[in-house]
Specification:
The protein contains 4 helices and no strands. It is an all-alpha fold. The longest helix has 28 residues.
Length: 88
């Protein structure tokens, strides 16, 4: 939800001109704006990693309880790593 609001604000700011875009840049440059943007990117990478995990499930892999636990932890860890690499 928050990602959609920020994306809509960004698109409206770009379409409205330099003054409105400057307001968005001020928000995005603040600590809270960076916190929101990092959260949005983390949720994107988490969704990607979980989607790949469920794709493996759809192909018939990973139904063992221990494997399912390990892939759950791996999807969470990979989303954190990908977010860190994205913002590095």
């Amino acid at each position: 939800m928050a990602g959609s609001v920020v994306l809509a604000w960004y698109l409206m700011a770009v379409a409205s001109g330099p003054k409105e875009y400057a307001k968005f840049v001020v928000f995005a440059s603040s600590w809270f704006g960076k916190f929101v943007l990092v959260g949005i990117s983390w949720s994107l990478f988490q969704h990607l990693a979980s989607g790949l995990r469920h794709l493996a499930f759809d192909l018939g892999y990973g139904f063992n309880l221990e494997t399912a636990r390990r892939t759950a932890i791996a999807s969470f860890a990979s989303s954190i790593i990908l977010t860190a690499l994205f913002w590095a």
